[in-house]
Amino acid sequence: MEEDISLKKRKSDNHGEKELQAGQETGEKVKRKRGRPPAEKLPPNPPELTRTLSMLVDMVINYKDGLGRQISKGFVQLPSKKEVPEYYELIRKPVDFRRIRERVRNHKYRSVGDLEKDIFLLCHNAQTYNLEGSQIYEDSIVIKSVFESARQRIVTDEEQKETVSASHGDNGGRAEDQFVPAAVKPLPVQLKKGNQEERSRNTMAKRLHSDLDSDEDLEDNTTKDEG
After folding, report:
1. Which residues in the chain come in under a pLDDT of 70?
2. How far is CA 115 from the centre of its chain?
3. How far apart are CA 138 and CA 131, in angstroms?
């Protein structure tokens, strides 16, 4: 009888320990699920790409229209959900220039195309929420156009640099010597030294001859007067 009681007690103790362990494991799983997962650290972009992305963003943000108005001011930072809850109900992927700059710093964009997607999304969101013809709607159209122009300009500059570098490597000359601007002004025609001296002598001879003629004419007139 005592052995049965002892056996039942052991089984009860073992069952209690298993329940305790199961409870601890469940608690650990719950703790792990709570909160956001740690942000994945991306390797840094090449310095040249980071510089290009920052330059593009700055060119768009600093752009001013014909009246001197900086049109990006309405896109720098979105209002909070508390201030404009209906905006976040309509716009599923909100983005502003503050977030774009932060993503450039954190190397979230791995190419110019990634940046372009967010710029175009920013413009699309503005055109989705605001009425067509409103100031911010029109500004979003200009921002998209400015970005496209800035990107084309930077890409063209980069291609020219690569071409100059390639020529520098092939010909062994300096980069300045290899670059030929689109419009070259004609140089003034320069006379050779021999030609210059010959012309100078001819000019002097003509002057001397003219002086002699003048003296002869003067003598003739004097003789006539005396006669």
Report:
1. 1-40, 162, 165-227
2. 10
3. 10
